[in-house]
Amino acid sequence: TNIEGYNMIANYAVYYNSNAFELIPKEKYNKELMNYMVKGNFDGLEKTPNEFIDRELVKLAVDNGFDLTAEAVKFVDYDIAFKALDNNALYNIQFIPKELFDNELSCWAVIHKISLKDIPNKFVDKELALLALNNDGLDIKYVSKKLIDSDVAYAAVSNNIKAFEYIPQNVITKEIADVVAHKNGLYLVNVPSDLVNYNMLVDGIYEDQNYVMKDKKIVYECNGQDLGIRDYMKYKKELYKQYFDNKLVEKAYQEAND
Known about the structure:
Distance between the termini: 89 Å
Order of helices and strands: HHHHHHHHHHEEEHH
């Protein structure tokens, strides 16, 4: 019939281009039409009138690889949450109700690069923390202090040296100190002196990743100044003399320059 023919054309039209939805009279809206639009378009769920949105339609959207929307939140369940994270975790995390989280969903989220700040605290244990810190060492900010031991601290600073600012002194080890010396020598003065050896001083003065590119040159940002490598090494030498044995620092500086 003409009605069936129109419906078929409308269904295929919105499947291939959601903009076609604007041309369809409201009296022709039906569940099947919405299904076609959601199956074929990244913005299909967003364009669907609220009265047609239900769990079935939301699941259809995510099963076809598309994102959640604010209106879909009330229909998001455990299975939909997993699939939504799989599709586009960094975007869809905002639409996943916190009450759905458990250990497994939390782990799945972190595997998909979600920060610990978006995970309920009660599910953040040492294992999850280590997994998250391999994504971003600065997630140490969201780890309970009682969970921060030498393993957690090492994972954090190995990924992002700025994480060192959140590491308690009592968990710092020689292995952590060695990472600090290689990545940002300025932090070495905050390492307990009994853990700092001669090789760390050499590395701290010479092997430093604390640089940026400006005007096609490598510079080291220090106290509001942009220093070249030699001036930066001299600065660290004088800084180290305030914390470590002066003769040892001078010797390390000479080796770093050789």
